[in-house]
Amino acid sequence: MRGTSRLPTWVELLLLPGLNLVSAAMIAGLVVVLIGEDPIAAVSLLVYGAFGYGEAVGYTLFYTTNFVLTGLAVALAFHAGHFNIGGEGQAYLGGLGSTLVALHWGHLPSVLAIPLAVAGAALFGGAWALVPGWLYAKRGSHVVITTIMMNFVAAALMTYLVVNVLIKPGQQIPETDIFATTVWLPPLAPLLAPLGLDLGRAPANLCSILALLCCLGFWLFVWRSRPGYELRVVGRSEAAAIYAGIAPARVTMLAMTLSGALAGLLAVNEILGSQHRLVLGFTGGYGFVGIAVALMGRNHPLGILLAALLFGALYQGGSELAFDMPKISRDMIVVIQGLVILFAGALEHLFRAPLEALFLRPTVER
Amino acid sequence: MDGLWLQSLLLADSTVRLATPLVFCALAGLLSERAGIVNIALEGKMLGGAFAAASAAAVSGSAWVGLLAGIGFACALALVLGFATITHRGEQVVSGVAINIVVAGLGPTLADAWFGQAGRIPLPGGARFAPIDLPGAVELAGVPVLGPFYAEVVSGHNLLVYLAVLAVPTIAWIVAKTRFGLRLRAVGENPEAVDTAGVRVEGMRYRALLLAGVLCGLAGAYLSIAQNAGFIRDMTAGKGFLALAALIFGKWRPVPAVLACLLFAFADAAQVRLQGTPLPLVGTVPTQAIQALPYLLTILLLAGFVGRAVAPRSLGRPYVKDR
Amino acid sequence: MPAPAVELRGITKRFGPVLANDRVDLLVEAGTIHGIVGENGAGKSTLMNILYGYYRADAGTVAIDGEPRRIGRPIDAIRAGIGMVHQHFMLVEPFTVLENMLLGAEGGPLLASGVARLRASLARLGREHGLEVDPDARVGDLPVGLQQRVEILKALCRGARVLILDEPTGVLTPQEADELFAILAGLRAQGRTVVLITHKLREVMAATDRVSVMRGGRMVAHRRTSETSREELAELMVGRKVQMRPDRRPARPGRPVLEVRGLEVADDRGVPRVKSVTFEVRAGEIVGIAGVAGNGQSELLEAIAGIRAPTRGEIRIDGRSVGGSAEGRPRGFGHVPEDRLRMGLVPDLPACENAVLGYHRRPDYVTSGLLRRRRIVEICSGWLERYDIRPRAPMLPAIAFSGGNQQKLVVARELEHDPELLLVGQPTRGVDIGAIEFIHGRLLAMRDAGKAVLLVSVELDEILALADRILVMFDGRIVGELPAERAEERRIGLLMAGIAAEAA
Fold first, then answer.
1. Cβ–Cβ of C108/B200 closer than 8 Å?
2. Does ipTM come in above 0.90?
3. Which of A333, B60, C299, C478 could form a disulfide with C273 if both were Cys (CB 3.0 to 4.6 A apart)?
4. For residue range B36-68, what is the model confidence (pLDDT) as tens digits?
5. Which class does domain B2-128+140-306 fall in?
């Protein structure tokens, strides 16, 4: 985590993640060979699919936005010392929050309806994450296990609600009625068209700007605000926090709630920005990708932006790739994501130790 | 009355079936966590074992080859976990999550590429472990009460179920009564003490992880080539986490942990039977609510009854000599 | 003359940028008690851990009984007949004494056979050396003195002919320390060799035959104990003349600042650790609490600091009743906690962020919810200068500072916020002599400025040097109170052992 590192910033935020990424890519390449495809050809197809033309860029941007939000969510909990792997469920519930707003207050003008729907997403996502936070603070329940369990519960709950309660009357497909256009987030395409970038029918929308604002807010909150300071103290030493008069229980609950709220904002991009209705399984595993993004981005918004862009490109390019090379399914992206977590998270000392030996002169005086 | 008894027997029977992978995994978790390594990767190792077992069984046509492959792959994953957490002192939870996600993607990817069945590996009957009728099951079936119990609940499971039953006392005995067990328990509490007593900490932890890998492989093989006919994506469905919760609920001791597994399995078995059946007082409960039951139960158990359980003292801490 | 029991030549060991041992030579004659003295961080423990195979030397040779040996792991040392009692005991607390003895010496894949064999040798060793201990007791339940005994037995059971003890008396009363030295003398009489690491010169003079002095990772002198003095050793350790006791003027106690009445405190497991304790600390005095570690001092300090809720009793600071709330800090008292790395600092955060820990809600540091980063760095830089904390790098993580500099940072933070009452726990644990002198001077200056100071320390010397009044704690109770001028070591030692509470 940044702040503990003594490496130069560019090494910490670029070189180290770069090395981790290359290692992950090599193993992934091995898997591609194992499947019987040419990894070099696969990479070039992937890059073209992600950046080769305007619409591709638009999709890449859209996925990147998802990963920035879920990455920030994981990172915030990390700073408080917790591993929130429940982003998937929290985002799902976020979808419920914005849907309820959209269905009930869709008649309001956009300036009211959209902020309300965004708040609904954050509120529901935050509340869903507060449960594990509260259970940890009060009962000591392991956050990793409870957040995973809450994912399963969220899936069951949402299936029930969509199939039995919120479904568009008189149809069989499990999804709600389409929302009033007042809650639709404006697309980015008209904004970027004057710059000569044609995003085509890509769903990139104003939520991308919201995600950037979240990055800025994240940085201010974690490194500059008083509650952010308390959060970092609790995350690194609970004993020191108690000594300093900080209540770890309160801070944990705050951190989990904010983390869940960030994950919940995924629904803004997916539901308000793209689908314009609640569909089953709209979270599509993005919550889990957030783990890889946060680890690779070293829990810093700048790093998270870069890592999210990488995964956004992988997702978009990967779907194109799956189309051109049928043997490579989209599950391949999940493999890469796991490998990135392995190299950037679990095996971070593999490259860190040699780099520290390379870049650090003795600073300790005795 | 007879019907109710038979219903109970069937419930007990499916409890045993559903408990088997949980028991293997909980014992695997016990071995690694008593050695000081958090094993979030139970889920992934089990899924990996299921995938490898199904692949090998499908290709070779032999359940035994499948079993070996399942164990082998789970052990390989255990070595990766060890390389990250023991050799490179990586964060243990993160390492486990990494393995879970890699396997979740790798299984369907390879299955798709090799078998072309949309991420599934179907198996013919010959490549699976068949139910074994214990001696006397048919003869005793007529004996009232006990006969059906013997025939339904005790007899008629596949080999791996009986192996799980055997594994419980065996692992408990190893942990309590052997040199390996003593060192295992010590290394999870105070690795420095083990090191200064002249025993290699890293070696002990690797061995614990490998043994856990064998058990996870058994659990996975059970899922794909014994209980079910083949591999499907995400077929573990959180069972690794349930086993981990059972382990915590059992306070890292074998018998209580296994009892907790039986409780989870019972909830799962009941869940299947309850679907669509109206309950007294409540009426028909939505399917989804019943499906969520095992997960809710896990959360409740972790929160309500365990409180802050006393974990092995060095659990989750990489072994670093001071400085 | 027989071959030396231990002969180290040119031992060198580096930890990252720190040279912990620099071409160290050491010769220990068989059948002697050999002391190794030096300041914290001089490299004594590192050297002995190399001899024991726990650390691996970068260079140098080891010979045992005249024979060159390669010792790469503890098992090599154990086979060579070396045993070590570490400063932090290497015991598995939930295990019984017997299980702890078995570990690494099981005698076969099953435990059953080894158990019988060990029981017998445990009984024999206990009789021979006066080291009786219940083999079926859970080690975690034993008092530290007995845990140390288990450690010694562990080494002897494995046939140690050379026994290394690292700071063994830190957890003992002076009388218990004397008992330990008697046991060591008994071992010497049997022809075994003892290496005693310590920083307490009294013990070196009382118990050893020879002594080696280390400073800054080097071996600087070897002496026969009979031919040296405490003063000479102290000078060799520090490299300059040291003042053994700080100068001090008589105290002028004023109004009571801290009043504690009938306080009872339980530990995390609910076991009562502080039992109806009553005392007060007045403005302008230092009250020292002496006692062997684990007699309730830590819990007492934490309760007063608002970290641990008392089960009964009253704490008043400046006449206001406090206690039980987690919002403990900004109430006009400072607290230098016993364990700075666990509690007093957040090791991974930079020095400047540690400089406001616990005071981060003050308006000086926050405007509209945001930390005043520049001001905080400025203030911290000022302290680094005035307290001579090195390196002068406010952005460096606290963990990157040495123990003495870390402690000075904590002391700076707690003193500079100008408290009326200062709670101090083990202020000089793991701190070099230069920093000790500095910190002691600061505490006396606080007292002279009319502040109330409560000092908890297991170092009796420290209490004697600083306190105006001494309270002795034993088993959660205050068993004696002595004014500084009437305090003498023997009497306090007896009180610390719970003996003669009435007589004293």
1. no
2. no
3. C299
4. 999 989 999 999 999 999 999 999 989 999 999
5. mainly alpha
